[in-house]
Amino acid sequence: MDTLTLTRPDDCHLHLRDGPALAAVLADSARRFARAVVMPNLRPPVTTVAAALAYGERIRAALPTGADFTPLLTLYLTEATPASELRAAKAAGLVGVKLYPAGATTHSDAGVHRLEAIHPQLDVMQDIDLPLLVHGEVTDPKVDVFDREAVFIERHLAPLVARFPALRVVLEHVTTREGVEFVRAARPGVAASITPQHLSLNRGALFEGGLRPHHYCLPVLKREEHRAAVLAAAISGDPRFFLGTDSAPHAQTAKESACGCAGIYSAHGGIELYAEAFDAAGALDKLDAFASRHGADFYGLPRNTGTLRLRREPVPEPDSLPFGDQRLVPLRAGGQLAWQIAA
Ligand code: NCD
Ligand code: ZN
């Protein structure tokens, strides 16, 4: 099979940034995806419905003419988020509320310090059926960085899912066997998004012939056994696993630094990278549901109706892309993508 026709997919976890960065990256997502769940970790974070709607307007204004792309907006949860804002978010069609443990990742300093402090908000979200999107890592410096997801699940996520039995929860960018097993064993209403890098790379990619800042993201790449578990979940056909690129652009200078930022840019190959991983696993027939149905069904959105055609034919990737007045180094820079979008 050298061509593949998919229902237009959705990216259920995307960082679009703002201003010139937004303008530089948006077309890559809009060309591939009908919709994307857009993360609220701007500076300042998107903590109000008014800010989210204004951000949605800026995204629409930055779309190339003729593009058919709908941003699905989210709210950044803080310990001070009032119940009224959550109800307004639901009423305004925001699709979820993002929980960043304070200090866990890029622009998470306004996030949550103590999970107990947001129990009132979780109560309201459970009542009004507004999903909680979780960056699932502990920030305890005593916990090894490679164990932070597994420890978060055991210490925090499992108790939270039990305490709020009707709250819908997405374990974003699942990276471990423990994460996959947790979702599989969980009650209904618990799901996980999966990135292309966690499907196709293990932590060896961070040190291949030298230090590789463009393979650094959070949660960090894990051992091979975990990559294999994440891939198995993605190709299993289980509707609790769906596509979320976590494409997270940072300027080349911010990545290639003594203290490089976390985040991998993958929107330029936002569906092609998955096609390659599914193809390598002999599971191309499972890609359509993973990319185009499971996420929509979880969020209670209509499935997309258009199609996107892919062709198995390598395309070389440039070393970098324009990014405002900076440069952006995409995943596979200087290499190639095995699939491309058929015109
Ligand atoms: C994301 C970013 O840069 O905004 N970085 C990342 O490594 N994934 C934040 C996040 O999703 O954790
Ligand atoms: Zn993210």
Tell me what you see in this structure.
The chain contains 11 helices and 14 strands. α3 runs parallel beside α4 (119-128). By secondary structure, it is α/β, with parallel strands linked by helices. The strands form 4 sheets. A 6-stranded parallel β-sheet has the order 5-6-7-8-9-10. It has a 3-stranded antiparallel β-sheet with strand order 1-11-14. The relative contact order is 0.16. It is globular, with a radius of gyration of 19 Å. It has helices at 19-32, 49-62, 83-91, 119-128, 148-163, 177-185, 196-200, 224-234, 252-255, 272-280, 287-299, and strands at residues 3-7, 10-14, 35-38, 70-72, 74-76, 96-99, 132-134, 169-171, 190-194, 241-243, 307-316, 321-323, 326-328, 336-341. Bound molecules: N-carbamoyl-L-aspartate and zinc ion (ZN).
SSE blueprint and pairings:
Blueprint: E1 3-7, E2 10-14, H1 19-32, E3 35-38, H2 49-62, E4 70-72, E5 74-76, H3 83-91, E6 96-99, H4 119-128, E7 132-134, H5 148-163, E8 169-171, H6 177-185, E9 190-194, H7 196-200, H8 224-234, E10 241-243, H9 252-255, H10 272-280, H11 287-299, E11 307-316, E12 321-323, E13 326-328, E14 336-341
